[in-house]
Amino acid sequence: MAQIFTYILHKDGAIDDTALELAAAAKKIDAAASPTAIVVGSGDGLDAVCNTVAASYGEVWKVAGDAITYPDAEMIRKLLVNILPADSIVLLAHEHFGMDLAPGLSVKLDAALATDVVDIEGVDGAVLKLVRQEFGGAVSTHVTCDAGQGAVLTLRPGVFAADESQSAGGQVVDKSSEAGDLSALRKFLEIVEAEAGDVDITKSEVLVSCGRGIEDEENIEIAFDLAKAMGADVSCSRPIVDAKWLPKARQVGTSGQTVKPKVYMACGISGSFQHMGGIKGNPFIVAINKNPKAPIFQVADVGIVADILEFLPELTEKIEEL
Amino acid sequence: MEILVCVKRVPDTSENEIELNSAGNDIERDDLVYSVNEWDNYAVEEALQIVDKVGGSVTVVSVGDEEAEEVLRREMAMGADKGLLLSDDAFEEADGRGIATVLKAAVEKGNYDLILTGAQADDGAGQVGGMLAAMLDVPFASLVNTITVDGDKLKVGREIEGGNQEMHEISLPCVLSIQTGINEPRYVGIRGIRKVASVEIPTMGAGDLGLDVPAAKVNRLDYFLPDLGEGAEMLEGSTEEIIDKLVELLKAKGGLK
After folding, report:
1. ipTM
2. Which residues of chain B make contact with A257, given a CB cutoff of 8 A?
3. In the predicted model, what is the mean pLDDT of residues A200-224?
């Protein structure tokens, strides 16, 4: 079996949750595998990150350099091509950095690519059997991935149970001298922080969240009416922000806000993983959607098949009468 | 600026419920309504806005069968100057790498400063743009939600977590994958479609492009419905009964103040 590497995301000295999920995924490819974690960065905190990771990996490759203080995927791609042995299997988290890095990396390594993998079912020779989803999670597919000349896989965050055993007792190997030429035609400038909105939905205890099912800008009012009656705030899913019907600050999801309410009313929201990824703290989720097959019904506590444009005003009226 | 936008014809999920066929080996394709991939539509709009500001032309390209032509025509009705269809039986079994290889060959037949793709399409893979850039040895940025032209460079913003934006300067030529919400795609009316109805759209096959499509390393075996556990308790009955049950639950869970 090919050697398995994982790329560790870390920020401000803390490792990302996906670091241990990738370790668990490596074991699903090969139970006997001793995957190697790659930790890239700079500064005093990097050694501490490496030591934390070493508790869960047999070996940690540390690559330190001032040029890679900010992990720019175009530079990290060159770095990985320089340090990885032929035919490696590389595991990345399927988030904005992994999505930026993985396709080009697979080409430069001449390796197979499978993105947003949600399960690894087994290996037959060098062929991995993977599970992916299509159409926003409406259907799943089994996919074979020929890793004979290596593979790059991005794994959906939160679906592989993290390996918390911390029993690896690994060693840290400094590979900084092998990083090579990292010059790139793309230069990182800065992070522009999101604008604060008129309401901070990350602090809301009850959210009435609306999605595509609201159909029209003028119908947004229906959600505000219900929220007012419930003493809740209004949030939304991505299509509502794309249509400019509500500001970005009200968007729940991995590219928006992470919310921790007690109760979450998902109204006309299909329930993509990017949306659900922004809901933490295990709230009581009520899903109202006219499509009985909407993926949201798989993850909600209570489901109602109804057109929100008719159902929400009736619910509002009832609550106002209480 | 000469801009190429790669577009894909996909089942329109706002018009169809995606379901399995009876054999379980594909989605039910009877009566499916197809349209242009939503992300690609934003990419075409962005290309048109760039050309409005700095001049140049927009070409839309698609790898697909002859039905993909309707999608190219729709994007030309939006304002794209030219269409190009890449169609060949040899492309049908291609994986993402194969599609990127076909597009690379077409890019090399032209002279483009900027290539745009949607951030992802119906299969959610989000792979072709980054592969194409690496094959062309030009820089790439994914999930782009702002573009500003600055001479022979672009300033681009990438959508990252928490609504934040990662800003980069990127040299031309380059490939960018475009995120939804970057702009508001213009409406295409029936008159716009009619205007381009008879415009010739050239088609190129593997022979015209002089390429062998690499054998797919990644293959889809089947489709199935995800089993994500118990799922929600479904409230049923008349609307009044459902609302009564829901109100009781909301009271119990702290959902009413």
Report:
1. 0.95
2. 162-163
3. 97
- Contact (CB<8Å) B135/A107: yes
A106 belongs to a structural domain:
yes
Cβ-nearest to A255 among B159, B246, B253: B159
Evaluate whether residue A39 is within a structural domain: yes
A145 and A58 in one domain? yes
- Chain B nearest-CA distance from A220, in A, is 18
CA-closest candidate to residue A103, choices B176, B38, B107, B212:
B176
Q: How far is A81 from chain B (nearest CA, A)?
A: 12
Q: Kindly give, in sequence order, each residue whose CB lies less than 8 Å from that of residue A254, ignoring residues fewer than 6 positions away.
A: A95, A157, A274, A277, A278, B161
Asked if the Cβ–Cβ distance from B226 to A298 is below 8 Å, we say: yes
pLDDT in tens, A36-54: 999 999 998 999 999 999 9
Asked if A102 and A153 sit in the same domain, the reply is: yes
**Do A172 and A258 belong to one domain?**
no
3 state SS of A7: strand
Per DSSP, the three-state class of B121 is coil
Using pLDDT thresholds of 50, 70 and 90, give the confidence band for residue A145.
very high
Query: Is A254 close to B161, i.e. CB distance below 8 A?
Result: yes
- Which structure tokens are listed for A61? 């490759």
SS3 B159: strand
Is B13 in Cβ contact with A138 (below 8 Å)? yes
CA–CA gap between residue A150 and residue A126 (Å, rounded): 9
Domains defined for chain B, CATH in brackets? 2-209 (3.40.50.620)
Do the Cβ atoms of A134 and B217 come within 8 Å?
Answer: no
Give the burial class of A315: count Cβ atoms within 10 A of its Cβ; 0-12 exposed, 13-18 middle, 19 or more buried.
buried
Contacts of A304 in chain B (CB under 8 A): 234-235, 242, 246
Residue A82: which domain range?
Answer: 4-178
Whether A174 and A116 map to the same domain: the answer is yes
pLDDT at B22: 86
Q: Are residues A134 and A219 in the same domain?
A: no
* A193 in any annotated domain: no
Chain A contact set for B169 (CB, 8 A) = 186-187, 189
Residue A141 C-alpha, separation from nearest chain B C-alpha, in angstroms: 4
Give chain A's domain count: 2
SS (H, E, C) A264-310: EEEECCCCCHHHHCCECCCCEEEEEECCCCCCHHHHCCEEEECCHHH
Q: Which of B20, B96, B119 sits opposite A139 (nearest CB)?
A: B20
Are residue A80 and residue A218 in the same domain, yes or no?
no
Q: Closest Cα of chain B to A201: distance in Å?
A: 12
Contact B13 A135 (CB under 8 A): yes
Band (pLDDT 50/70/90 cuts) for residue B15 is: confident
Regarding whether A222 and A293 lie in a shared domain, the answer is yes
What mean pLDDT comes out for the span A301-312?
97
Q: Which of B164, B221, B232 sits opposite A143 (nearest CB)?
A: B221
What's the pTM value of the predicted model, to 2 decimals? Answer: 0.94
Q: Any residues with CB less than 8 A from the CB of A93 and at least 6 apart, and which?
A: A7, A9, A16, A18, A21, A22, A154, A155, A157
Three-class HEC string of A94-129: CCHHHHHHHHHHHHHHCCEEEEEECEEEEEECCEEE
